[in-house]
Task: structure prediction
Amino acid sequence: METKLLLPNYYKKIGLAVLLFSTTLWIYIAFSGNDQLVPETSFFAVVNGDAVGKSKYFKIDQLNLTYTLVGSLFITGSLLIAFAREKTEDEYIMKLRLSSFQWAVLVNYLLLLLLFLFVYGLDFITVMVYNMFTTIILFIVRFNYLLLKNKLADAK
Result:
């Protein structure tokens, strides 16, 4: 079966390293409160809103890119893992990919629905930030769980 959108298998190891690095940075930032890992630098922003609700459009501004860097690394690592081929890529693996993706989207939106109903105020913005990453992480966990379960069943 032809799989046009999948990367070579070794990208999974690269993605895992990048994902672990970014997750470690994210946890460090969350628990230390130190979000100044990257010094402020001049950077082009399409939109940059400030605390009083005034936005600047298409400006070069002094920005702290720590969250941008960590989030970008997290997304890059998780995409490399999710879109790396397995060593044997067959129709069964493709079926597992599809069912894992469907399951991840369903669970993600059920969680989001619950959070819409029970989280309010500025905490909801935090929920939405984390929700951006939930689907890909649920997919990776579910897909690898099903692969492991299948390998263990074959070993018996």
